[in-house]
Design a protein that fits this description.
The complex is a heterodimer. Chain A has helices spanning about 1-50, 70-75, 80-110, 115-125, 130-140, 145-155, 165-190, 195-200, 205-215, 220-235, 240, 250-260, 265-300, and strands at about 55, 60. Chain A is mostly helical. Chain A is globular, with a radius of gyration of 26 Å. Chain B folds into 2 domains: about 10-60; about 80-320, MetI-like fold (Orthogonal Bundle), CATH 1.10.3720.10. The chains are: A mainly alpha, B mainly alpha.
Chain lengths: ~300, ~325
């Protein structure tokens, strides 16, 4: 008797409760959605619209529909910041990859009981201010540091590291290295170790095992790390401003110049859109790569 | 790891053993040793590479020197003293705290709320929401910064003219801009924790007629706490350390510590700047340590595995 009334009551409450829970759900996601809509979607749309406009008389924006800003951004004479950024981002990503791969491999396979300590030690610098970590190199690379030392040794007193692309490259590798190590480490850690045993049992050398077993399986981690490093590198501003003395002129520096100094917003907006497009292309490539990997793995299982 | 000789005979290794029984193995062992040594050496070098710059800043902040930063003239706290008595630095420090705490609270509350409710939303909504989370994290900071500036400036122009008010850039605009990235961050951390959560306790609570409200506070919330704490601390430090977004939207009304440091770098490295930098490192690192301690205490009480409850571990997991 009691049971049947219970059931009836529950049925009765069903729709009302679900309506109420829908309301609660809506209220819970509302603030975050508002943030995304107002401070992400709307601003990006405004930048997109602005990139087709003209510069106002006192800076800012005047409505128009023109491709002049894009023509300017891609003008061969004015495209240098893009090219410099691209070269620096690609070489920085590649250097991060070369540096991160052995260390991720070491922690994942040889870490043992110190594994979590080693990972924490990687995170601590990453946790601290990017600005200060970049600033720290000013002393090390400066005329009282490494550059002075090399200058003394070679007898070239005008030898400088700061203000050159090399300083910027070092700075970005230093700043973004942990972002490369984590994903590679995670995929290596999750990897099925018996595959390596199998490869060894079948007579493969260590190098062959690494190249033919470990590397393809961890490819997802390598690509994830590369994307995580490449995209922020394309828009980097702090490192070239501090270690490059602004002489190494990247897209980031140009955007700051156009938005904050010369206030030519439409021109800056067009460059920002191009930067977003580059980012989108690399993300699409990333998704394609990850899915392609999945498909071939499925096939190989069959 | 010096590989022990495999007990199973490897078919193509056999002839080699026959031809030169004494040689092949030592040579392989030497090569293995070299590889091991290289791996270990490389790892050690990278850790040195990561820490030496930070150490240099901290060490030279204690230098008593008047003039050259790297010329060691004895240990002294004078630069800390002078920096902490500087009213401009004090104001910048206070502003950074104000911004970071507000950002962390906003991001943690809104991010956690959204993470809890997202499972119950329609599929199309969830896909869009997830895409936006992804975009807010992956888009280069400078693009977010400039588009936020353009947005503030254009909407404030319109609103100020329409309603005769005077909205301008400052504290609120910095916090709102910082919150965007950090909401996504908290959301990801809490969702990851939520998906790995044991549902049986929640169901048991419902079976025992626990109300959704009580079930949440007594079952779900304690399990989510490490992720929420990690999210709060990460948001705090990211906001505290942020330069690029603040630089675009601070509108000269409110100087934070990174803004102050960046402008003083332009005058070159000084022991005073080193001292401010060291203070900033100290603040963010103590936030990390406090958070870790909180999470560990919570983990011991609820009997979770230590590694799983580590803030750092969660961050590493997340970025993978």
């Amino acid at each position: 008797m009691t049971i049947s009334t219970e059931v009836a009551k529950a049925d009765d409450e069903g729709p009302r409760r679900s309506r109420r829970s829908a309301l609660v759900t809506g209220l819970l996601v509302l603030p975050a959605s508002a943030w995304y809509l107002i401070l992400l979607v709307l601003p990006l749309l405004i930048v997109l619209v602005m990139s087709f406009g003209n510069k106002g008389r006192f800076g800012g924006y005047e409505p128009a529909f023109t491709f002049a800003n894009y023509a300017d951004a891609l003008d061969p004479n004015r495209i240098t910041p893009f090219v410099t950024s691209l070269v620096l981002a690609l070489s920085g990503t590649f250097l991060c990859l070369l540096t991160a791969l052995p260390i991720a491999y070491y922690i994942a396979t040889r870490g043992g009981s110190r594994k979590s300590l080693l990972i924490v030690l990687l995170i601590v610098p990453f946790w601290t201010s990017f600005l200060i970590r970049t600033y720290a190199w000013l002393t090390i690379l400066g005329p009282e540091g490494l550059a002075g030392f090399i200058g003394d040794v070679t007898g070239d007193s005008s030898f400088r590291i700061l203000g050159t692309p090399w300083a910027v490259l070092l700075g970005v590798v230093y700043g973004y290295l942990p972002l490369m190590v984590f994903p590679i480490y995670v995929t290596m850690e999750r990897m099925d170790r018996t595959l390596i045993e199998a490869s060894k049992d079948l007579g493969a050398t260590r190098w062959a095992t690494f190249r033919q077993v470990t590397l393809p399986i961890t490819a997802t981690g390598l690509i994830t790390g590369s994307i995580l490093v490449f995209i922020p590198l394309m828009g980097e501003y702090v490192v070239p401003a501090i270690l490059g003395y602004g002489r190494v002129f990247l897209i980031g520096n140009q955007l700051v110049l156009q938005f904050l100094d010369s206030r030519n917003w439409p021109q800056g907006a067009a460059r920002a859109v191009v930067l977003i497009l580059i980012m989108l292309v690399s993300v699409v490539f990333y998704l394609w790569f990850v899915n392609r990997g999945r498909r071939t793995r499925d096939v190989s299982v069959v | 790891m010096t590989a022990p000789a495999t007990p199973i005979a490897r078919p193509d290794a056999l002839p080699e053993v026959d031809v030169a029984p004494g040689r092949a193995r030592p040579r392989a062992r030497v090569r293995d040793g070299l590889v091991e040594g290289w791996l270990r050496g490389h790892t050690l070098l990278v850790y040195l590479f990561l820490y030496i710059p930070i150490l240099v800043v901290v060490v030279f902040s204690f230098n008593a020197t008047q003039r050259r930063v790297t010329q060691w003239e004895g240990f002294s706290l004078r630069w800390y003293e002078s920096v902490l008595h500087d009213t401009v630095v004090q104001a910048a420090l206070f502003n950074s705290f104000r911004v970071a705490i507000a950002t962390a609270i906003l991001a943690t509350v809104f991010g956690t709320m959204a993470a809890l409710a997202l499972q119950g939303t329609p599929r199309w909504f969830r896909s869009i929401f997830e895409a936006l989370t992804f975009i807010s994290i992956i888009v280069p900071e400078i693009v977010i910064a400039l588009s936020t500036l353009v947005f503030y400036s254009t909407t404030f122009d319109v609103i100020n003219q329409l309603f005769h008010v005077r909205f301008k850039l400052g504290y609120e605009t910095i916090v709102a801009a910082h919150a965007l990235f950090n909401i996504s961050l908290v959301l990801l951390l809490v969702r990851a924790r939520l998906s790995g959560m044991d549902r049986t306790h929640v169901e048991a609570s419902y079976d025992l007629y626990g109300t959704p409200w009580r079930t949440f506070w007594q079952i779900t919330f304690p399990q989510l706490l490490p992720a929420i704490v990690a999210g709060f601390l990460l948001s705090f430090t990211f906001s505290f350390d942020d330069y690029v977004i603040t630089f675009f939207v601070y509108g000269a009304g409110l100087t934070t510590l990174p803004i102050y440091i960046f402008s003083s770098i332009r005058q070159g490295v000084t022991p005073a700047t080193n001292a401010i930098a060291a203070i900033m490192l100290l603040i963010t690192l103590s936030v990390l340590v406090i958070g870790q301690a909180l999470v560990w205490r919570n983990a011991r009480r609820s009997g979770q595995r230590g590694a799983q409850a580590s803030v750092a571990g969660m961050i590493a997991e997340q970025s993978g």
